[in-house]
DNA sequence: TTCGTCATGTAATGGGTTACATGATTAC
DNA sequence: GTAATCATGTAACCCATTACATGACGAA
């Protein structure tokens, strides 16, 4: 009855925080912006939206006034339902953003969490990145152990598969290392541009994490 | 009622083809040998085993005679149920092995299929590898297109996530390229060691695929 | 006029996990 | 004696997909 997905809920709230949208568009964003990792179907999305409305996190709005005169025939196409984040929804999302349990760095969640790092405070970002890294290192240790145990009994293909899998994990660890270092560099950056400083950038606009070049003007249509 | 998992069924049949096992051990193998990608719980495994028995692919056997005298007290531990592949099961698995639809190269299936390449005929291996590769290239094209469309609207983190995701896919494509070339080299290898040839190596022992990349004493710590 | 895309939804189904129940054996 | 591991199983639940139902609009 309740359809509390966790990950889908999180992503929907996060996307709607940037700007109101209707379901169809929301799904597209879900499967492009964030969707390298996960693809959701309408069968999941629409029920999810309903429960979010029931929770009070979202409100449904009729189609916004179109500037295009052709579409003025009372809601172009089938009457869109635009979903907007409520104040309570915003608060709820902010709370979700601040959580740093294992739920934040397991495979299914990490990607989506990362996608909203722009809205996440720096210390939470650090905890999530480090959590993910240690999770992966744990996994590497297990893989190495199991490989050492069974090395001789495996055929070439199984071995190659294992090797490639381990390399993938190692690669992600290196990636995380760079990101973490980058975050640290950003944090310790107080010598120059001191006027940019702010005690907590949780709700503020997305600031670049150090090495990444600053963006001129980001505009979310 | 039926619990036809596809992927789990496949893996179970494949592991039992190598040697009979009881459920507990089977699960461990599932989560080490093949399990970098997927971890199954007893809640899936045992019901699956039951239906496989009902299908006639497996038979339950009482614990095998233990050579260890201490365990001779009528089935060491709780009476193990050893599962053995029947002739029909073997036939069925062979048929599954020969299938090369999209089911073979999608994310969820490819790893397990690859793990049993040792039992797979060369032409099927080729089709699966090439299928996977074109699937990934398709995905890359989509990612690049979507990136080109939305490049400016994305914040640094989302961009970085996307970039890393694409790199991962590109890396797998390169891996597949090497494997495919290796397979081809193996196929065209008729100048030397001609007595090793066999028209179909489907059911035969695992032959190394020519220039198998994995080096013996390769240890990347 | 038919196809592709936009747009919203529901019911049935699938494939899996978690938590629980049970109990023997081994190692400390 | 008690904790860990071995060993098998079930029921309740979860999250998501697929297939379906409906329908409007724009372009070929």
From TrEMBL, chains A, B:
Ranges for domain Transcription regulator PadR N-terminal: 12-95
Comp. bias intervals (Basic and acidic residues): 181-200
Pfam family of the protein (one): PadR
Region of interest: Disordered: 181-221
Coiled coil ranges: 126-167
InterPro entries (alphabetical): Metal_resp_DNA-bind_regulator, Tscrpt_reg_PadR_N, WH-like_DNA-bd_sf, WH_DNA-bd_sf
UniProt keywords, alphabetically: Coiled coil
Coiled coil is among the record's keywords: yes
PANTHER family: CONSERVED PROTEIN, PADR-FAMILY TRANSCRIPTIONAL REGULATOR
Name used for this protein in its record: Helix-turn-helix transcriptional regulator
Native organism: Streptomyces daliensis
